[in-house]
Amino acid sequence: MIDHTLLKPESTKDQIVKLCEEAKEYKFATVCVNPSWIPTAAAELAGSDVGITTVVGFPLGASTTFSKMTETRDALASGATEIDMVANIGALKSGDYEQVKQDIAGVVHAANGQAPVKVIIETGYLTEEEKKKACMLSKMAGADFVKTSTGFGPGCATPEDIRLMREAVGPDLGVKASACVRDLDTARKMVQAGATRIGASAGIAIVTGGKGEGY
C-alpha cells in the first residue's frame, strides 16, 4: 500500500538507488520519484514487482494541460507505471470547474490506460466543499485515485479528509494519503478512514513500527 517517496529537489542518484533497494526489500507498491529519475529507478527495479510513480505538474499544478500531457507521455516512455498529477488548484478556487476537469481528463487521455492516474487535490488549500468538488471532478474526468497533498503545500493528510474524499468518490476509486504519514499508527488511521495507498518517505518506519521524518 506504500509509495516509497523521495521528491526533494536535492536528491542524489545514490539516494534514488537506495530508495529502490529499500522498496524491493520491504515490498512497497512503488517508488515515487521526480521524472528525471525514472530511468535510474527503472534500471534498479527491473525484474521486481515494485512500480514507479512519478509526478506531473508538480508541485504547483499551475502548468498547462498540454505540458502535463507531454510530461505524462514522456514519463511513461521512460518507464513510469503510475502518474500522480497536481490538479489546477487556482482554477478550482476560481470556480472554473470545466477547466479543472479537462486538465485531469487530458492527463488521463495521455496515460491511455497504461498507468493509473492519481489526482493531487492539495487539501491544505481547499475548503470542505472544494475538496468534495475536486474529488467529484477527478472521478468525472476518469482518474483512478484522489490524493491529499504534494507535501510541498500547507497542512497534513488527516483521517477527516480521507473520510471526506472516500465518501465523495465512492468505493470505485483509490484514495491516497500523503504528507505527514510518518508512523504505523498514523498510517492505520488513514487506512481505517478509507485510504488505499500511503505516500510517505517514512515507509520503513511505518512497516517497522518506528517514527520517521520528512514527507
TrEMBL record:
Pathway: Carbohydrate degradation; 2-deoxy-D-ribose 1-phosphate degradation; D-glyceraldehyde 3-phosphate and acetaldehyde from 2-deoxy-alpha-D-ribose 1-phosphate: step 2/2
UniProt entry tagged with the keyword Lipoprotein: no
EC numbers on record: 4.1.2.4
UniProt-listed Gene3D superfamilies: Aldolase class I
SMART domains listed in its UniProt record: DeoC
Keyword annotations: Cytoplasm, Lyase, Schiff base
Keyword tRNA-binding: no
Localization in the cell: Cytoplasm
GO biological process: 2-deoxyribose 1-phosphate catabolic process; carbohydrate catabolic process; deoxyribonucleotide catabolic process
Protein name per UniProt: Deoxyribose-phosphate aldolase
Pfam family, one: DeoC
Family: Belongs to the DeoC/FbaB aldolase family. DeoC type 1 subfamily.
Domain of life: Bacteria
Catalytic function, reaction form: 2-deoxy-D-ribose 5-phosphate = D-glyceraldehyde 3-phosphate + acetaldehyde
Organism lineage: Bacteria, Bacillati, Bacillota, Bacilli, Bacillales
Active site: 84, 147, 176
Role according to the record: Catalyzes a reversible aldol reaction between acetaldehyde and D-glyceraldehyde 3-phosphate to generate 2-deoxy-D-ribose 5-phosphate.
Molecular-function GO terms, alphabetical: deoxyribose-phosphate aldolase activity
Gene Ontology, cellular component aspect: cytoplasm
Organism: Alteribacter lacisalsi
Major place of residence: cytoplasm
